UniProtKB/TrEMBL annotation:
InterPro entries xrefs: DUF1800
Organism in which the protein naturally occurs: marine metagenome
Protein name: DUF1800 domain-containing protein
Source species taxonomy: unclassified sequences, metagenomes, ecological metagenomes
A Pfam family hit: DUF1800
Length: 467
């Protein structure tokens, strides 16, 4: 068995670069080594994809879905069962950064196609990702670029490309927005006939040269007869873009930052970490794989354990994975996806182009109650395979005394680092219950009940809300 600290570090990596891992997986990865695990995560294409044939047989209405629940269920299932955890985690990251909502697009399969594009582009160059985003039909519809015409520009896409997707407020002018928008005229969607009442056709990107403004443009100090890709080429070379992307990666993978709209007045929590990520961006010409390799191997990442509030998707998926539930399609999958909605994160339908507010705003009053009830209910179910494995681990260790009972539970669930106050409350419960006893069948059954109660309390704790 690997050293306890090695296990804890790998567990930290898998919480951030994925959605957690079982104890068996943690020990296997710790035996490979931390840096080898990072490299494996950074090349997801070397791992097998999920068997989605069985999933689509279980969701026969998926292709023609008129509402998002079936498509949400498909994505949550992928997050739970993927052997490519970083690929799926990055799809969630880009969905949060490049927020596109079904409330306007009204075509759930098309937004799911956008998520698939995020998987394909997740670890390539930021430049290529932005070009694919600009050509993505769901994004074109979401930000009205299908209404951006030569002689009658729509500035929505041009503005959000600069403000929310690449550079941030204060790093461009209104004239830059106008000329960027002119450059993207003619980037639109090939029209499709709706197939209601059976669903929607997939859309295709279409470039219409006759609708493109081919005149001279001035953008961020550059002049030329720019098209959309020229604008992206200029954007990705701006120092502000490297800073903006670095801060987003830090906030998502390392520690919660202030909300994005305040970044122009609130400096980063760790300027040195941002500088390191910016340097990786510059040296690799915007390679996302290079930036994440630096991030995961850095001391600032390794030392930032439990410094982020789990998003609803992270809480739901990581708890389900730990409990060993939904390892195959079965009834309740759509309701599992809806659980993210009820906790405040409606996948495929963020509230606006500004996306969700993260960090402490995930755990406001109503959402916190929902999170606690979900985690406690799942972790207290001693019939689930992952919970059975924890029970077996406690029994194998011969755990009996209250203090070792609490510490072993925290170790097998995480390892988790709980505050002394929370640990004391758990110890009070374990002491009141009288510890564990495995001598007889009846004693073992009572011990399993006590374990279920303890795991439910862990899931209901404040500390469990952090990754």
């Amino acid at each position: 068995m690997s050293d306890k600290e090695d296990i804890a570090l790998i567990a930290h990596l898998m919480r951030r670069a994925g959605f957690g891992a079982s104890r068996e997986e943690l020990e296997d990865r710790a035996a490979k080594g931390y840096e080898a695990t990072v490299e494996e995560l950074l090349y997801p294409e070397e791992q097998p994809p999920i068997d989605d044939d069985i999933l689509y047989r279980f969701l026969p209405g998926y292709e023609g879905a008129l509402g998002p629940p079936i498509n949400q269920a498909e994505w949550v299932y992928r997050m739970v069962n993927t052997q490519r955890p970083l690929e799926e985690k990055l799809a969630l990251f880009w969905h949060q950064l490049f927020a596109t909502g079904n409330s306007k697009v009204d075509n759930p399969p098309e937004i799911t196609q956008q998520i698939a594009m995020f998987r394909r582009q997740a670890l390539g160059s930021f430049r290529d990702l932005l070009v694919e985003l600009a050509k993505n039909p769901a994004m074109i519809w979401w930000l009205d670029n299908n209404g951006n015409h030569n002689g009658a520009i729509n500035e929505n896409w041009g503005r959000e490309l600069l403000e929310l997707f690449s550079m941030g407020v204060g790093n461009y002018s209104e004239d830059d927005i106008k000329d960027a928008s002119r450059a993207f005229t003619g980037w639109t969607i090939e029209p499709k006939i709706p197939r209601n009442p059976l669903g929607r056709f997939y859309w295709n990107f279409e470039y219409r040269p006759e609708d493109h403004d081919d005149g001279e443009k001035n953008f961020l100090g550059h002049a030329g007869r720019f098209n959309g890709e020229d604008i992206v080429d200029i954007v990705v070379k701006q120092p502000a873009t490297a800073q903006f992307l670095a801060r987003h990666l830090y906030s998502f993978f390392v520690a919660d930052e202030a909300q994005v709209p305040s970044w122009n007045i609130n400096p980063p929590n760790d300027p040195d970490a941002i500088d390191q990520l910016v340097a990786a961006y510059d040296e690799s010409e915007g390679s996302l794989r290079s930036m994440l390799r630096l991030l995961f191997n850095s001391d600032f990442f390794k030392n930032a354990r439990f410094a982020r509030v789990k998003s609803p998707a992270e809480l739901v998926v990581s708890t389900v994975r730990m409990a060993g539930n939904y390892q195959g399609p079965r009834p309740g999958l759509t309701m599992l996806a809806m659980e993210c909605n009820w906790q405040g994160q409606e996948l495929l339908n963020p509230p606006s182009v500004e996306s969700w507010h993260t960090g402490g705003e995930w755990i406001d009053g109503g959402a916190l109650v929902r999170r606690v009830n979900f985690a406690a209910g799942l972790m207290g179910d001693t019939s689930l395979p992952g919970i059975r494995a924890i029970i077996a681990g406690l029994r194998e260790r011969g755990v009996t005394a209250p203090e070792e009972f609490v510490d072993a539970c925290l170790d097998l669930v995480g390892p988790l680092e709980f505050s002394e106050a929370t640990r004391s409350e758990l110890l009070d419960q374990a002491t009141e219950d009288g510890g564990l006893n495995w001598d007889t069948v009846e004693d073992s059954e009572k011990s399993e009940q006590k374990i279920g109660v303890m795991l439910a309390l862990i899931g209901a704790s404040r500390d469990f809300q952090f990754a």
